[in-house]
Specification:
- The chain is 62% helix and 0% strand.
- It has 14 helices and no strands.
- Helix 2 packs across helix 3, helix 3 packs antiparallel against helix 8 and helix 4 crosses helix 11.
Length: 301
């Protein structure tokens, strides 16, 4: 199969009306590994906003059941991607996600910011580390997909263009990135989980953590009080990812069958299967004590 056959397929689809089909091709066939990494880093960077990181810490879910929280998050998003937002399975997944978010005091601004990371980070990752960048047509479809997802989540004032999402994300991080020990704890356990994923589990844990840090910007590292890697470490990591991209480009053929998240070895919480309705948490009331504001932030009302 022509290495650009899937790109040709997405070019034939309408970015404004068939964005789910385009995103499904990109995520499960054209760039399954790259987009998984990019979305993982997208979620990770949100912890550096104390109003988000502290909330995740106070629930205890991300620090005490890290693997399950990871699995639940990606499996819910996977169901929406595979079946479509308006399908019965997609609606069930959206309902579960909205029920969980609705149990906590989360501002619309934070929700918009998290959405922006899911729009921006995969596009940036593929531009730097992918075997090819997304085309403008694909970027448009990617943006439309997450705008639709945001509307189903009840998020208000969603940016209309990719460029507007970039401005939102970069501006929010410049204003809100700050250190909090509780956010750092969530980041630490997430990195620990990363070291257990195949094939990273075969390497020394400290080396895996270093590799992850080499891909973080200084502002993100500073927000977690992580040491900045050396220029040599950054160069080696980027060279390795670019070498992988060359291998994918010139050696591998396009994937013929989609690879959904549920089939990947890093999903380990449900060896006997699962239903979308059982994923996630089921708090009866908000379990977070809102009496103390996160370090460097104001309490949200």
């Amino acid at each position: 199969m022509n290495r650009f056959a899937l790109r040709d397929s997405t070019d034939r689809l309408d970015a404004q009306t068939q964005y789910e089909d385009i995103v499904r091709i990109l995520t499960t066939r054209e760039f399954p590994w790259d987009i998984e990494q990019a979305l993982s880093f997208a979620l990770f960077r949100t912890y550096a906003v104390p109003s988000i990181g502290v909330l995740l810490h106070e629930t205890g879910e991300f620090t005490q059941r890290t693997q399950k929280r990871y699995d639940d998050t990606v499996l819910i998003l996977d169901a929406i991607l595979e079946h479509g937002m308006t399908s019965p399975s997609g609606r069930s997944a959206l309902r579960r996600m909205n029920q969980m978010h609705g149990a906590y005091d989360i501002s619309n601004d934070d929700m918009r910011y998290v959405l922006s990371t899911f729009v921006v980070m995969p596009v940036r990752w593929l531009a730097e580390f992918g075997w090819r960048p997304l085309t403008p047509h694909e970027v448009s479809a990617w943006t439309h997909y997450y705008r639709a997802l945001g509307r189903h989540m009840g998020i208000r004032d969603i940016p209309e263009t990719f460029e507007a999402f970039v401005g939102l994300m970069d501006g929010y991080e410049a204003t809100h990135f700050a250190f909090d020990a509780r956010s750092r704890a969530v980041a630490d356990v997430t990195l620990d989980l990363l070291t257990t994923f195949p094939p990273s589990h075969l390497a020394p844990k400290e080396l895996v953590r270093l590799f992850a840090r080499t891909l973080m910007e200084d502002a993100l590292l500073d927000a977690f009080h992580y040491a900045r890697p050396s220029a040599l470490s950054r160069a080696v990591s980027r060279l390795a990812l670019k070498a992988r991209a060359k291998f994918v480009r010139y050696v591998l053929s396009p994937r013929r069958e989609p690879l959904f998240v549920r089939g990947r070895p890093n999903i380990r919480s449900y060896p006997d299967g699962y239903t979308v309705e059982q994923l996630g948490t089921f708090p009866k009331t908000c379990p977070v004590n809102h009496g103390a504001a996160p370090t460097g932030t104001q309490r949200r009302e």
